[in-house]
């Protein structure tokens, strides 16, 4: 009796690295192979294909076909890294039809893309320059970098802005994924209208370990390591979020440039402290009130003895503008308390207070817009424009000029932040417009989560469809035919002449 084990993980017409590992016998003679075949569930001798297959490799491939025939393999194809001789391994495609007639095709020897391409440090610099990355960090081996280079080269020109400013990190391991297994790679981004960086992709050792098990053979005939599609998956998340990340980083860069011009480049990592300082209103209503107190002190001092008025009037005069006019009127009245000079003093006090009340009203209006925006009640552009037009149309005298200029600076920053919130804050958490557009399409087309073993872990939620988006994006670059085999509507979304996957934020 044979114990059948179903090895079905993918739903794309073939399996990748799904078969259990096996060692060839120490002696692999024709008799050993023939005995293995006679004991197997094959109806006859398997067919061997491949360029320049040696006798040893042929016997190894026949033995492998017979060995795996004891599994539930009818109608299945496996792309696997398997032993093909003493101390040798190769890229092997095993195919079984419904009657268990079997074919083994030797695609290549060794593992795909397992040879380093040039000097690692030179390659890092080349990749950073070519794709406008912020940096490449961590323990990338020369072979790792070759695979990274392949993945980046597959990204379409229209998607290259999603790579801009990213940090690509190579880490030993990552925290467990939701299913409990070690995470292979992760794309990290901050959610908010002002961010420090454009994001990070971290790739773990476990990602590259999978290259020892299987491979993808693309529709173009090129053989790809499993890690390449894993890297492309994380890039898919970057593509899904490109517009909101780019706008948020542009916001923070513009904000910081108002307080520290020329310090940072367009993709540099910004200091969170610098962002906080730049996006904070540096003067508050309490600062305005302190200046008002100086004016009131000078006015009150003028009503008393001249000798006691000098200090308060002096502080008022130092503020300049209409405050200096008030100081002079106070000094005149303190020295000679006539009705005419008293009237003049009151007039100058009223001029100062009119300006103080106006700037105070503007501050309170701006702060009110900011509080509404942060609470999710996003003001319209017109509301911000009305305030800014009022500010820019009204000349402002000392000492209110610094408050006036600061309010204009801050309003411009808050306007951009509010516009970002209005555009990107969604009802379904922090999912992007592209992800939510895909979710709607997938639900309308009845597309499920069964594309790969990874996507099967996720329910049909916004987060689950975000993972399906990234997985389908990756596969569309490696093997669009496989994507069509799985679901034609899904393939159309990612591979059509006008692909839909760019619909959403910013489009």
Account of the 3D structure:
The chain is an alpha/beta fold and 507 residues long. The chain folds into four domains: 80 residues, no CATH class; 144 residues, no CATH class; 141 residues, no CATH class; 69 residues, no CATH class. Helices cover 50% and strands 11% of the residues. The protein is built from 18 helices and eleven strands. A five-stranded mixed sheet has the order 1-3-4-5-2. The longest helix has 36 residues. The N terminus is likely disordered.
Please indicate the percent range of residues in DSSP E strands (runs of 2 or more).
5-15%
The secondary-structure element order is: EHEHEEEHEHEEEHEEHHHHHHHHHHHHH
Count of DSSP helices? 18
Q: Compute the separation of the termini in Å.
A: 59 Å
Number of domains: 4
- Low-confidence parts lasting 5 or more residues at pLDDT below 50? 1-7
**Over the alpha carbons, how many angstroms does the gyration radius reach?**
35 Å
Widest sheet: strand order? Answer: 1-3-4-5-2
- On the 0 to 100 scale, the average pLDDT is 92
What is the general shape? elongated
Biggest β-sheet: count, sense, barrel?
5 strands, mixed
Give a brief outline of the structure.
The chain is α/β, with parallel strands linked by helices and 507 residues long. 50% of the residues lie in helices and 11% in strands.
Provide the descriptors you would attach to this structure in a database record.
507 residues; alpha/beta; 4 domains; four-stranded mixed β-sheet; 11% strand; elongated; disordered N terminus
């Amino acid at each position: 009796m044979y114990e059948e084990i179903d090895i079905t993980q993918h739903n794309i017409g073939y399996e990748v690295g799904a078969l259990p590992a096996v060692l060839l016998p120490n002696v692999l003679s024709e008799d050993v192979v023939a005995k293995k075949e006679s004991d197997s569930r094959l109806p006859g001798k398997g067919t061997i294909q491949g360029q320049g297959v040696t006798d040893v490799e042929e016997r190894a491939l026949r033995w492998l076909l017979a060995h795996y025939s004891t599994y539930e393999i009818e109608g299945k194809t496996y792309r696997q890294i398997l032993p093909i001789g003493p101390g040798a391994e190769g890229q092997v495609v095993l195919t079984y039809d419904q009657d268990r007639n079997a074919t083994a095709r030797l695609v290549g020897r060794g593992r795909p893309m397992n040879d380093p391409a040039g000097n690692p440090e030179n390659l890092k610099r080349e990749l950073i320059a070519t794709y406008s990355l912020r940096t490449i960090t961590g323990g990338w081996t020369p072979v790792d970098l070759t695979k990274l280079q392949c993945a980046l080269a597959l990204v379409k020109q229209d998607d290259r802005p999603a790579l801009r400013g990213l940090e690509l990190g190579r880490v030993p391991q990552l925290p467990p994924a939701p299913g409990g297994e070690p995470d292979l790679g992760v794309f990290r981004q901050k959610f908010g209208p002002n961010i420090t960086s454009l994001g990070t992709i971290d790739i773990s050792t476990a990602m590259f370990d999978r290259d020892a098990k299987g491979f993808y053979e693309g529709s173009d005939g090129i053989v790809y390591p499993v890690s390449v599609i894993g890297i492309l998956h994380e890039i898919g998340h970057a593509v899904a979020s490109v517009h909101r990340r780019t706008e948020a980083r542009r916001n923070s860069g513009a904000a910081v440039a108002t307080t520290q011009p020329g310090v940072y480049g367009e993709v540099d990592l910004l200091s969170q402290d610098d962002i906080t300082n730049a996006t904070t209103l540096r003067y508050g209503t309490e600062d305005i009130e302190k200046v008002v107190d100086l004016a009131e002190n000078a006015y009150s001092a003028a009503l008393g003895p001249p000798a006691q008025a000098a200090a308060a009037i002096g502080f008022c005069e130092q503020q300049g503008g209409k405050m200096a006019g008030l100081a002079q009127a106070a000094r005149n009245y303190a020295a000679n308390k006539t009705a005419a000079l008293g009237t003049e003093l009151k007039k100058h006090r009223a001029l100062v207070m009119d300006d103080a009340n106006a700037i105070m009203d503007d501050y309170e209006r701006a702060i009110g817009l900011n509080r509404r925006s942060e609470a999710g009640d996003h003001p319209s552009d017109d509301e911000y424009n009305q305030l800014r037009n009022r500010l820019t149309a009204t000349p402002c005298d000392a000492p209110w000029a610094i408050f006036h200029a600061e309010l204009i600076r801050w309003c411009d920053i808050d306007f951009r932040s509010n516009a970002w919130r209005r555009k990107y804050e969604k009802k379904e958490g922090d999912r992007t417009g592209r992800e939510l557009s895909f979710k709607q399409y997938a639900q309308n087309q009845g597309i499920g989560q069964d594309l790969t073993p990874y996507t099967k872990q996720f329910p049909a939620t916004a987060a689950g469809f975000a993972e399906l988006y990234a997985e389908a994006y990756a596969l569309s670059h490696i093997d669009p035919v496989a994507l069509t085999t799985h679901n034609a509507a899904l393939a159309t979304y990612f591979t059509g002449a006008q692909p839909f996957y760019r619909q959403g934020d910013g489009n």
